[in-house]
TrEMBL record:
This is tRNA 5-carboxymethoxyuridine methyltransferase. It catalyses: 5-carboxymethoxyuridine(34) in tRNA + S-adenosyl-L-methionine = 5-methoxycarbonylmethoxyuridine(34) in tRNA + S-adenosyl-L-homocysteine. SUPFAM superfamilies: S-adenosyl-L-methionine-dependent methyltransferases. Its EC number is 2.1.1.-. Belongs to the class I-like SAM-binding methyltransferase superfamily. CmoM family. InterPro entries: Cmo5U_methylTrfase, Methyltransf_11, SAM-dependent_MTases_sf.
């Protein structure tokens, strides 16, 4: 039986290779563009309550906290929480944060009210039962609130393997290769995630593809470009098809309707 992934054993490596990379920078830029729109829709006339579920270093929620909002950061990894707390302290944002060391599935035991905005980013692909966890997280959103969900895209994983010529691996069902410790255990079919969100009673407001072409670019420099151009082009293309469905990750945000 597959278990939920805890990053205690490779927390520092994860931070360096994921957050401190060009891929991480593109992810931050694309999703923050969406979050600014979400915050505008929620309205920022008063501090919002944010839940960063499985938030790792809390890089995006730190940007939100910097705007005066309150964040509960929950993570299964004590090492990741420790690194996050140091980072948050260095940014002068500790008063805005509350830390919860627990699996996201148990978050209801640690909070006493629903939240305006939930961030659930790059977590489901590491879980044995992603739908169960998603339902728990969605239940924490108050009526009128928004869930921001990012997941590892099965389509992107398939396409990457196809263009790399890994056809035998595709034919075998793309089993997880244990030697790639920082690669998620599985990709999630977008249509499944969208259905889970809608079946929970939420209305999908928008979708973005995260790294829609960067990861497919050849290693050799065939063209003329800068990394800044890559980021800008990713931000430009991310909300239109077919690029959404080709993203290595997909960011989808949805709103719980107000009670009638």
């Amino acid at each position: 039986m597959t278990e939920d992934r805890n990053f205690d054993d490779i927390a520092h490596k994860f931070v360096k290779n994921i957050y401190g990379s060009g891929k991480g920078e593109i992810r931050q830029a694309v999703v923050w563009q969406d979050l600014e729109s979400i915050l505008g829709q929620l309205g920022e006339s008063k501090p919002l309550d944010i839940l960063d579920a499985g938030g790792g270093l809390a890089q995006l929620s730190q940007q939100i906290a910097n705007r005066g909002h309150h964040v509960t950061l929950c993570d299964l990894s004590s090492q990741m929480l420790e690194l996050a707390e140091k980072d948050i302290e260095a940014a002068g944002l500790l008063p805005q944060y509350r830390f919860v060391h627990a699996p996201v599935q148990e978050i209801a035991q640690h909070v006493d009210k629903q939240t305006d905005l939930v961030l659930f980013h790059a977590v489901m692909e590491w879980l044995a039962d992603p739908r169960e966890a998603l339902n728990v997280i969605l239940s924490q959103v108050k009526p009128g609130g928004i869930a921001s969900v990012m997941f590892y895209n099965q389509n992107g994983l398939l396409f990457k393997n196809l263009i790399c010529g890994n056809l035998t691996h595709v034919e075998e069902g793309m089993p997880h290769r244990k030697r790639f410790k920082l690669q998620p255990q599985k990709g999630l079919p977008p249509e499944d995630v969208y259905q889970w969100i809608e079946e929970a009673g939420f209305n999908i407001l928008g979708k973005s593809g995260v790294r829609t072409f960067h990861d497919y670019m050849k290693d050799t420099r065939m063209g003329e470009y800068t990394f800044e151009q890559v980021v800008a082009m990713e931000q430009k293309l991310c909300r239109q098809e077919p690029f959404i469905s080709l993203g290595r990750y997909i960011h989808v945000w949805a709103q719980r309707p107000l009670d009638k």
